[in-house]
Amino acid sequence: MRQNSEKIVIIGAGFGGLHVARRLAKSEHQVMVIDGHNYHLFQPLLDQVAVGDLESNAIASPLRPLLRAPNIRFHWGCVEKIDSNENKIHSNTG
Fold it and tell me: Which residues form a coiled coil (predicted)?
C-alpha cells in the first residue's frame, strides 16, 4: 500500500459496508470501516435464534476477521459528526 494512497471511510458494516470493504481489500486505497458494533448480525435468522432453532453465534460474526486485509482498519464507534469542510469524521470514541 502506498503512503499517499486515497483514503476511503465506510460508515456501517452491514451487508453493503462489508461488500464494499471486501471489494476494496486488494486495492491501493486505505480503507477504514466505522461501526457502532464489533460484530455483523444476519438479522433474517434472528427469529430462529429466538425460538431456539439456532445458536446466536450462527448469525453473528466478529467484524475484524471479516475485514482482514492489510489496507483495511476497523474503528468501533458511532459517527457523531461529518465535517466536510475539514474532511473529518468525528465519532464517540475519537
Answer: none
CATH of domain 7-91: 3.50.50.60
Using alpha carbons, list the distances in angstroms from residue 56 to 13, 26, 41, 62.
Answer: 18, 31, 9, 12
Amino acid at residue number 26: K
Domain ranges in the chain?
Answer: 7-91
Which residue is associated with the grid cell 483495511? 72
Q: Report strand pairing: 7-11 vs 30-35.
A: parallel
Alpha helices by DSSP H, listed for the chain, are 15-23, 46-50, 63-66
Distance of CA 58 to the CA centre of its chain: 19
pTM value?
A: 0.84
* Each residue's pLDDT tens digit, 44-83: 999 999 999 999 999 999 999 999 999 999 999 999 999 9
